[in-house]
Records
---
Amino acid sequence: MHSPEMILALDFGGTKLSASLVNSENLKQWLRKARVSATSDARSNIEAMCRLARQALGGRIPNAIGVSFGGPVDFSARRVLLSHHVPGWENFPLGDVLQAEFHAPVIIENDANAAALGEWRFGAGKGCSSLLYVTVSTGVGGGWVLDGKIFRGANGLAGEIGHMVIQPEGPVCSCGKRGCVEALASGLSIARDAREMLAVEPHEGMPLRQLTPDPSALTAEAVSRAAQAGDQLAQKVLQKAASALGCGIGAALALINPQRVVIGGGVSKSGEVYWRALQDTVHTLVLPGVRVDLVPAALSDDAPLWGAAALALNLSGSV
């Protein structure tokens, strides 16, 4: 009798580390799943992830390991190029380290591409031939799935919608350029814009001020909660961020016309005001005749994990 394959999926996120086990004959739920907070250096994150993986495996040897990593990777060499948030990852041979530890083949992808594949295979993109996945949280990332395959580009950097410049004289981005989508639409930029508006509008934004009396502790989540409670200042901040993201998506759709656009990440859960502004902007900017199918992600924070599982399934031959 054919025995099902055990697939280990790992997600090295900026704030969380996750490890899950899935059976190739039951791809609807995890057999085991474990998650902990990420630490501030690469070595301790690797040690923590290996502990999580052993916990998920429960003594089993996986048939293949899929890895989602929160930063640029060299896909063919199975190496991490760097992390924008955690030191020590520069040109790190993560694939070799994990293969030696768990005695199974390893495949590595950056988190946005992995999440795009996860949503295409298991989530909001099921049944589509092509999709653009965009994640909006601390930063803004993206990934393409075209004809059922991740499109990485010549240098492995396709899908970096967060670093499309839409306002050349805009705020400085984490990449060093000005006016990138990320500098205008990310969670950090939402918090920054809210602080600035509260400073110049002392009589507005009372619900937001009550939620976060200390402006330096303001977060995009607080802005979202205030907006959904009717705070007009918070709503203006979210509308501005959503419009910036819509500009980036509209430009992307002019170049590659995917069947669906899937939006994930914490900021995507900001409510009706945010989504209406996003959809209105995209519809305004696309060419006549372009159908815009813009939907929220279905897999939430698990999208990169499911994408890692899909990569490992392809690697093992259990497609």
---
Amino acid sequence: MNEYLRVEPAKGYAFPVAKAGIPLIGAAAFITAVFALLSLTLPALLAMAAAMFICYFFRDPDRLVPNISDAVVSPADGKVIKIEKLERSRFYEGPSLKISVFMSIFNVHVNRIPFTGKVTKISYFPGKFFSANLDKASSDNEHNAVFLETEAGQRICFVQIAGLVARRIICNIHENESVQRGQRFGLICFGSRLDVYLPPTFEVQVGLGDRVCAGTSLLGKLAS
């Protein structure tokens, strides 16, 4: 049985939400109150439902991270929609293995670091907004690529990709920053995708269609 670690302090309240959602939740709650004070029952109920959904979307539960030295964890909650070997990629020098996780609007959208290391580069591209489950979303959509190097000198790249509805990518880490596996680093608003580029010798431990949780589910292991 795997042991698990807490890499960040627990938030300490029953329903934690991401900071990025607080202004939207506050605005929806304010609109609900205005409609209620004006005795506009139906608009008030609709605004309250919107506020509840925004709270649900921006939920940010604490996670325990597997204590396995060579394990790479999923950076996102969602469904594994692609596992493929690539001879070349704009996000990885030389051959790589790519794993894509699609997040629907019902998944937790807080993203987490897949492996401990140092951020060597962050590259943002203001692209288009195709549906995130399409192949062309990887290259054409708005995206933010984080390049990481492990202590052993292995390279990993994980790419936040905006989707058809998603119009905001948030990344809270910086170049030359040391990060830990399972650490929160950002989110994408309202449906999106995460692509992970790994060394070609990576030992995959997930399959197409598998449901994964950020910071907790193993994608596989890095070869030593």
---
Amino acid sequence: MKVLTQQQVDAYRRDGFLSPFDALDEDERLRSLAGLERFERWLGKPVNQAEVRWRTMPYLHLPWANALARHPRILDVVEELIGPDILIWTSTFFIKEANSPTYAAWHQDGTYFGLEPPELVTAWIALTAASREAGCMECLSFDGAPRQYQHRTLGLENSINRAGQTIVEPLDERTPVAMPLAPGQFSLHHYWSVHRSGANRTGHRRVGLGLNFIPAHARPTASGVKPAAMLVRGEDRHGHFELVPPPQAEFDAPGLAVHEYASGLYRRNYAEIEARHDGKPAQASRQLA
């Protein structure tokens, strides 16, 4: 059954973003937040203060996060944009503490991903309210002509992207589109979508999880590594990625080993693509996107 109207599909192809969609009921949302609380107890600190690897790919070692990556209400929409054979490539917690200056400068997710064709779509799930006041995402339409902009890793203070990646070309910022989300809703944005988010000026924690989905026919362009991905719908008839299994239990040794292995491959891929984009020799990346 079709979920999107033709008008919505056309809007996504023209603008590079689409919002909002309902995903989680209240029980699912509260279970996810409870899972995050257990994870942070295990870490002994908030995700934002832990080693950067714990901010990414939680679906590899946390069954509740894996359930989000396989959620039918999300995948049904994603399928209409990239087809029925779907891999999850990576994912990232985007958490802004209450009354926090944390923000994201204008950037494109695909800059350091190195995927061809650039058909990745990110489903950004709000586990708590992501209002304008809480620093919701804002996007600029690419007007049907997506392209890559030049970025630099600037180490910006208070950047939610820890390396502080930002676009360094001139942008027409006159018409940004805000995408506020109620708890349990999600938005979609394209590999080349130009987006940012502001500080959290509210008294509640803004908790989001970005899930990066690709069609199975997409391939990595880095020469030195075959990254890992997880099949979440359909079939993989291409073999461009090393497929990894879902977790069986929280914090168990096999799931943590898979997470360590896959995140290591991601860092190697990221370092090569970053060096290619910046025109520098490849080095081991200290930061994740």
